[in-house]
């Protein structure tokens, strides 16, 4: 009996540890692609400080590329943050459109009951417009949701590209040091090229995923704008479409 109880306790303990490990794994993003991490190899600029600006031209160019990549990353992160508000606004608009559609249906019923054909005709048109506006609101929510997925992929790409450009910057510094026969203790110059190549591959993979997500966003936007045109036609007015959001989020 004591052995059985001990065995059950051991099994229970192992199960608890397994569940806890699974929870921690999910919390840390387990099961999916890992995000970018800081560079492992950095080349201290003090080792090449004595060289002229002309000699360091490739280093300075790589540094500028790194700074531009950081700016693009911050821009993408800002757009993603803003899109959260845009999605909430779109959901609120959909609620209003649903209420308007319900009210239009009630007005149509009342018009039919009144026997007034003029009133019925107006109510029929209003109901059709309300239905299309509700559908447009649905399409807008779908579009912004997919656009947010694209922006998340874009942010991931920009993060990867920032690290890629930083790795290129470190590589150019190391390359200059090697060319000038600088031999800091513990430095293996081969590590810098390998690091830059690895970060380049990661950035390209993230860019491809971003471009694929962008196409889905554009397709959803096209559906939404098509619905807006239907609304304008049903109202009998000119067809106006809003600015393309994805045109402001280029890779």
Explain what this protein looks like in three dimensions.
The protein has 251 residues and is mainly alpha-helical. Helix content is 77%, strand content 0%. It has a single domain, classed as Substrate Binding Domain Of Dnak, Chain:A, Domain 2. It has four helices and no strands. Helix 2 packs antiparallel against helix 3 and helix 3 (117-179) packs antiparallel against helix 4. The radius of gyration is 29 Å and the shape is rod-shaped. It starts with a helix and ends in a 16-residue tail after the last helix.
Helix content: over 70%
Q: Spell out the helices and strands N to C.
A: HHHH
Mean pLDDT: 86
Total number of distinct structural domains: 1
**What is the C-alpha radius of gyration, as a whole number of Å?**
29 Å
The parts where pLDDT drops under 50 for at least 5 residues are 1-32
By CATH, the topology is Substrate Binding Domain Of Dnak, Chain:A, Domain 2
Alpha-beta content class: mainly alpha
What proportion of the residues form beta strands (DSSP E)?
Answer: under 5%
What's the CATH first level? Mainly Alpha
Total helices: the number is: 4
Distance between the termini: 67 Å
The CATH architecture can be given as: Up-down Bundle
What profile does the largest beta sheet have? none
Q: What is the 3D form?
A: rod-shaped
Query: How many individual β-strands?
Result: 0
């Amino acid at each position: 009996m004591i052995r059985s109880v001990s065995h059950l306790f051991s099994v229970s303990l192992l199960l608890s540890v397994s569940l806890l490990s699974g929870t921690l794994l999910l919390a840390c993003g387990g099961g999916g692609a890992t995000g970018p991490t800081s560079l492992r190899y950095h080349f201290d600029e003090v080792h090449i400080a004595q060289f002229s600006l002309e000699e360091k031209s490739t280093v300075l160019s790589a540094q500028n590329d790194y700074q531009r990549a950081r700016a693009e990353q911050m821009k993408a992160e800002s757009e993603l943050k803003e899109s959260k508000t845009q999605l909430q606004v779109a959901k609120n608009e959909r609620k209003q459109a649903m209420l308007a559609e319900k009210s239009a249906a009630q007005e149509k019923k009342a018009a039919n009951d009144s026997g007034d054909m003029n009133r019925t005709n107006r109510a029929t048109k209003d109901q059709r417009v309300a239905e299309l506006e509700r559908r447009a609101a649905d399409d807008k929510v779908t579009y912004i949701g997919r656009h947010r997925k694209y922006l998340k992929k874009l942010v991931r790409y920009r993060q990867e590209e920032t690290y890629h450009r930083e790795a290129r910057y470190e590589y150019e510094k190391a390359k200059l040091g090697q060319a000038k026969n600088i031999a800091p203790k513990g430095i293996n110059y081969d590590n810098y090229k390998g690091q830059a190549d690895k970060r380049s591959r990661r950035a390209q993979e993230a860019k491809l995923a971003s471009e694929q997500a962008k196409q889905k966003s554009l397709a959803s936007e096209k559906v939404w704008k098509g619905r807006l045109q239907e609304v304008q036609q049903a109202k009998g007015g000119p067809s106006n479409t809003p600015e393309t959001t994805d045109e402001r989020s280029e890779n």
